[in-house]
Amino acid sequence: MYLLGLGIILLAMKYLEIGPVALWEWWWVLSPFALAVVWWAWADWSGYTKKKAVEKEVAKKQARINKSRESLGIKTRRR
Fold first, then answer.
1. pLDDT tens digits, one per residue of 24-77
2. CA distance 67 to 74
3. Quick one: pLDDT at residue 1?
4. How far apart are CA 26 and CA 14, in angstroms?
5. pTM
6. Number of other residues whose CB lies within 10 A of the CB of residue 29
7. Where are the domains of the chain?
8. φ/ψ bin of 9: left (φ > 0), alpha (ψ from -120 to 50), beta (otherwise)
9. Which of 23, 50, 60, 63 has a CA-to-CA distance to 77 between 20 and 30 Å?
10. CA–CA separation, 22 vs 14, rounded Å?
């Protein structure tokens, strides 16, 4: 996501001819978009995306369990 933000900022600076970015070649300006594509391809291939999604689901589930225990007056276990 950071690469996309950087790419958008550089693209706007190049288009509006702001600062030293106006003098850069287009491939330098567009390179963050290519790096974002490479990052997403690697994240999907390696399972990184799925791992983060599962961690998020587990954290939500644990939060629901803790909330239910607190409402019942049961102390939660500390790990």
1. 999 999 999 999 999 999 998 999 888 989 999 999 999 999 999 888 888 766
2. 10
3. 83
4. 8
5. 0.66
6. 19
7. 1-46, 47-79
8. alpha
9. 50
10. 5
